[in-house]
Amino acid sequence: MQEKKVIAIADDDPDTLELLQEFLGDYQVRCFQRPEDLLFALEPDNLPDLIISDVMMNQMDGYTLCQMVKKRDELKHIPVLLISGYGDKVDFRKAIECGANEYLEKPVAIDVLKRRVCEHLRE
């Protein structure tokens, strides 16, 4: 039996985390309300296959989280999907500059999110 792919999600809204966990139930989902906690949990023998992060959070934003993941050699291969309620050109540029693999605007249709997840996980 093939193991489920692991998705780590950072979002400071517990309701959003619960919804994403439900919608992505085909995967093993690890939820973090603080991006710092997600970063701390990135152990070499326990890496996620994909990271999804909200952009606007209290302590650290999704751009910073993505940048910190992409600058570490042992993590930079992990695709990062950023989700935000902001969708102007500046936000897209910031996502590209920090190394995000995808930038999705809220509200994200669940079928679009699932398709993007599958594409990045090559399923």
UniProtKB/TrEMBL annotation:
<dbReference type="GO" id="GO:0000160">
    <property type="term" value="P:phosphorelay signal transduction system"/>
</dbReference>
<feature type="modified residue" description="4-aspartylphosphate">
    <location>
        <position position="54"/>
    </location>
</feature>
<dbReference type="Pfam" id="PF00072">
    <property type="entry name" value="Response_reg"/>
</dbReference>
<keyword id="KW-0597">Phosphoprotein</keyword>
<dbReference type="InterPro" id="IPR001789">
    <property type="entry name" value="Sig_transdc_resp-reg_receiver"/>
</dbReference>
<dbReference type="InterPro" id="IPR011006">
    <property type="entry name" value="CheY-like_superfamily"/>
</dbReference>
<protein>
    <submittedName>
        <fullName>Response regulator</fullName>
    </submittedName>
</protein>
<feature type="domain" description="Response regulatory">
    <location>
        <begin position="6"/>
        <end position="121"/>
    </location>
</feature>
<dbReference type="InterPro" id="IPR050595">
    <property type="entry name" value="Bact_response_regulator"/>
</dbReference>
